[in-house]
Structures are given as C-alpha cells and as structure tokens.
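queue> holo job accepted (guanine)
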Amino acid sequence: RGPYTAWQGCLIHTISFTEFQIFNNGLLIVDASGVITELRELESSDQMEELKRQYSLQEDQVNRLTETQFLIPGFIDGHTHAPQYPNLGIGLDLPLMDWLEKYTFPTESKMKDTNVATQTYTRFVDSLIKNGTTTACYFATMHLEATKVLAEIVSSRGQRAWIGKVNMDCNSPDFLRETLEESLESTIAFIDFMKQERFTEAGLIEPAITPRFVPTCSERLLKGLGEIASKHKLPIQSHLCENRQEIAFVKELFPNADNYTGVYQQSGLLSRRTIMAHCVYLTPDEIQKMAASGAAVAHCASSNFNLSSGVLDIKPLINSGIRVCLGTDVSGGTSPSMLHAIRSALIAAQTTQINANADVCNLDIMGAFFLATLGGAQAMALDDKIGNFAPKKHFDALVVDATEHADLLDLTAKDATKVDSALALLKKFLMTGDDRNIVNVFVKGRKIR
Ligand code: GUN
Ligand code: ZN
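queue> job finished
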C-alpha cells in the first residue's frame, strides 16, 4: 500500500470529550490511499531508522515539523449555508423569521442563476478550506442546478462534505418556493446525480436530505423526504428549536404533534445520521426523542448570538448521550472559520455559567477542540473514518504554525514540560489564531491547500 508518507513532530488530537493526546516527538505514517497506518511517540532515533526501513521510507517522504508547528485533525463544520456567504456580517438586525424573509430568502433566490452560484460557492468553499475545514455539512438552496454546482466545486477541491438540496414547499415567498412534486423530484434527481463515478470513487461527498425546517415543509413533503432518506440510507440535516417565535409557529402548523421534534420524528427524519442545527429550546421530552433516535445536534453559537435566538447549554444534551458538533451557520454566524465557532461555543458556555451563578464552566477549550474535530465526526457518524489520528482512519489534517505566538511564550522555562508548551501553542492558536497559521490542509492524505 506504499509509497508511504511520514510526519514527524508534535501531533495533537482528542479521543473523547474529556480526553486528548499529545505526541511531542510523534510519528504518523500514511499509506498511498490516505489511510493512517502508524501513530506513536518516537522513543529513539534507532526506532525511526527501523520504521523507515519497514516502510521503505526515503528521506524526502518524511515531513519534519518545526519547533513551532503541530499537526491536528481537520475541522468539521456540522452546519453551514453556502448561498448565504454574500450576507456574511450584514443584516443581523432582525430575529430569525424576519431575518429569513428580509435578507436570507432574497439572497438564496439569486442561486437560480448558476453563474451566481458558481461565483458564490467557489469563494465560500475556498474560504472554508483556507480556514482548515476539511469536512463540511452544506445547505445549498432549493435549486437543483445550483446544488449540483456546489457538489462539483467541493469535489474539485477535494473537500469532504454532506451537500443538501434544500426542500421548501410552503410559508416562503413565491420566488423561493417549490411545489411538493418539484421538491421530491429534484431531490431524487440530485441523489442520482451524486451516483456518478467521479463522486462515488472519491467517496468524499454524500447528498444529505435537507428539509429547510418544519415551517417551510408541508407534512407530505416531510414524510416523502423521510421515505427517501431511509430508502437511500442518506444523512439528514435541518433546523430545530432555534427561536421561540419559530417554535410557536410550528405548534400552530402541527397542533396534534407532541412538539417540534415530534414532527420530524413522525416523518422518519430522526436517525443516527441526522444533524439538527441549534436545538436551543428542546424540552425534556424532545431531548429524550433526540437521544432515543440517535440524532445529533449542531451547536451554532455565533448564529444564536447574532440573531438573538438564545444561548444553548450543551451539557444536558451530552449527558443524555446526544452527540454534539459545532456549526458556523453562515450567515447567521459571522465567520466561515471553525475557530470562531469554537470561541463562540466557549462564550455560550461562559454565559450559561454566569447566568447560573456557577463556579465552573461546563466547556473548556479542549472540549471545544473535541467538538470541532472528533465530535463532528461522531455527529456525522463518520468517526470510523475521521475526527482524529487513530490508525485506519483517513489522514484529514492541518499543519499549524504558531510562530508569532511562540516568540512571546517562554517555552523553555524550567518548570514548563514539552507537553505544557505544545498545549500552550494549541490553545493560543484556538483562541487567537486565524487562517494565516494554517500552513497546509490535507483530506484523505491529499494536500488540498
Ligand atoms: N431556519 C430555517 N432556515 C434557516 C437559515 O437559513 N438559517 C438559520 N440560522 N436558521 C434557519
Ligand atoms: Zn442554518
């Protein structure tokens, strides 16, 4: 399975919400198909020579990280909207339902023109990759052709993704609404389109069933999408319990349902491959429904602050066994960077702590790092392939250089261990770094930036 490639230097990854590993003089070996075959701490130079022989590694196949560089798993964005990129940072003066009506729907309607979609999606996908996102769960729009454009761009860049043709057949303006038949037919057409060999051979992109949210989907549409998802064994993504006004509207639309989560459940849309964004206001019954179905939550804290939706406390969800990941939720969220999603999640946890007058915060920086990497992989049910550097997983990774920050840290202080220094560099990067610190981006062993 050679030729192999090796990485030597500081490697950091998580193995659970509360556990991480640092390999100070680590060695990671990747085979020709991009699969990790070795991960270990190098004990001696003899051991290195032995491994080089074993894997027939030439000197130029060994990438040596510098003192200020480290390798981490690629970021996983569990929820984002490619067509909303033009609105990044603007139009955040209204709550969710008015924001959709005034800013979001008009912007999304422009994707009817595939030239506009090509321009918008090219810039958005490149911006995610530049920021270290190796896997993303994308919402496109209801437009079939533009959704294909997004799949082509993501595929051409070599990024890993779920891509959703959005479904919406009611309660939206004429210019952004499909009929029930159009919605189901174009969903099937998109699934068929993704069966082409150039997509299936790479195996990086999956179509995701993407009802926008309950208010814009008729009962028949939701049921139809549930059937398609289970027939084709596809992942599902949508929005749930983001805003109080939205929840009240769902109650009006489905007076006989147990609750908002119950509407998705009765439509067959909650599965182990479902990610519901937001979930700020889940009731105990809804938490139980999510947990029982195995559905995951994308915590989109930046968006929840910007649209004044609310502050999600993820701890009760995690304690109920619900898998949680982070989402940038552009353009409710104001950054395509998962670093911003990490920082926003920390602020949400601190807000929860302050409001509860509690002594400790229930999310720390390494917990947030987990959510942005292995947590994302678990939410997508892709943790057998990605999320950390465990052998047999794919090499989705970032080379980070914290040079600027390292200069100011006294990393040679007598009481500082190498582990302390490496952790300090990672934390500095997570809290204060940006795309300039991301030197290279790899997906399945292939350098995509
Ligand atoms: N709910 C339904 N559509 C959207 C959207 O585009 N963004 C957010 N944040 N919430 C939604
Ligand atoms: Zn969203």
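queue> The mean pLDDT is 97.
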